[in-house]
């Protein structure tokens, strides 16, 4: 079980989505609708929907919004979304995976390609970078959930594979599981630690690439541009940015 790690900036800048509440709610709603359409509209009987609803609640999404998103799944004229994954290369030799839910593949592909090309990157072909990542489960808790020993003990008891803790005001705890055991481990941790901030499937890099200041600045613009796209749900990368460089960039 691992200890301290700069896991926050491996995926995306902490707080980037918190500044864009309406955009965040739109993405959460879309995930809820897709999850409800793929299974039953009952969260108790649909693990993916339950995770989507819990994540929405963790972001203080109103109950009415959540219910409307579920209801859209059974509406005759409701939008039909499909899951799409894009892979590409960012500044400084970084590898990026973009997950999207879209009702128009051509629009989304064009937008994602534009984000890469305008921010020092290149969109690759399917399978071009995914081999450098592992598909795993990720459960995130705030620092207030407990100290490192408390979280580690709870994670071991729940059957997690790894823990990364970063204490301090902007820190948190990331608990990694196998993709298959995500729901089971999340349920056990909820009993021990309360509701998590995020529970989701993730792409965890096998190796990370250290970014210099110039590459980091361009890379973060790329990540922000992708996050701003309505169709993009999550952005994952194998980059690591030091605390010193993050401070210089004003994050």
Any overview of this molecule?
The protein contains 9 helices and 10 strands. The chain has a 4-stranded antiparallel sheet with strand order 3-1-2-9. Among the domains are: 82-131 and 208-248, YebC, transcriptional regulation domain (Alpha-Beta Plaits, 2-Layer Sandwich); 133-205, 2-Layer Sandwich (Alpha-Beta Plaits), CATH 3.30.70.980. The two termini are 29 Å apart. Residues 1-7 have low confidence and may be disordered. It is globular and about 45 Å long. By secondary structure, the chain is of the alpha+beta class. 41% of the residues lie in helices and 23% in strands.
Shape: globular
Distance between the termini: 29 Å
For the sheet with most strands, the description reads: 4 strands, antiparallel
Query: CATH H level of the domain at 82-131 and 208-248: which superfamily?
Result: YebC, transcriptional regulation domain
In CATH, what is the class of the domain at 82-131 and 208-248? Alpha Beta
How does the helix and strand content classify structurally? alpha+beta
| Rg calculated over all Cα atoms | 18 Å
Are there runs of 5+ residues with pLDDT below 50, and where?
1-7
